[in-house]
Amino acid sequence: MSSSNKGPVIIITGTPGTGKTTHAELLAQESPVPLKHINVGEMVKQKNLYEAFDEEWQSYTVDEDKLLDELEPLASAGGIILDWHTCEIFPERWADLVVVLRCDHTKLWDRLEKRRNYPLKKIQENNEAEIMEVVLDEARSSYPQEIVVELQSERTEDLESNIQRIMQWIEAWKEDRDLA
Description:
Elements: E1 9-14, H1 20-30, E2 36-39, H2 40-46, E3 50-54, E4 59-62, H3 64-77, E5 80-83, E6 97-102, H4 105-113, H5 120-131, H6 134-142, E7 148-152, H7 156-176
Parallel strand pairs: 1-5, 1-6, 2-5, 6-7
Antiparallel strand pairs: 3-4
Helix pairs in contact: 1-7, 4-5
């Protein structure tokens, strides 16, 4: 990425319930460089970046063109954390680091069951997606291997160690760009 003083673009992805938003919020607070947390799902709702709402699945059908147009200037400026359950729509050139959060499917089921108005079929679909490593495969097929990191997200200790690892990556990223 060209501009030397701009922050990294970090994508935090994973099956719903793996802890993306918790990780992104904590990272935005503790990062050694300013990072803005963008909850992409919330942005889709707030800025009407969808084609329709699916009542049966209780989810939005995202207008990917509108979403990418909205995110492009933010990604170009850098210093953002993109928090979403999918990553393959984000152009490869945007990403400096792609973090895929993983969680044992039985823990994931329990987490999703606690969500309000979360249909059983969505819990089943997401549980299956986690078992089949759908998001991890998507990340590995969309971005260079060296920027994709798989991290366990099951316990509070995982959250803390994951944030430490990402902050170490940010420090190395800064040094590579002589920003330290």
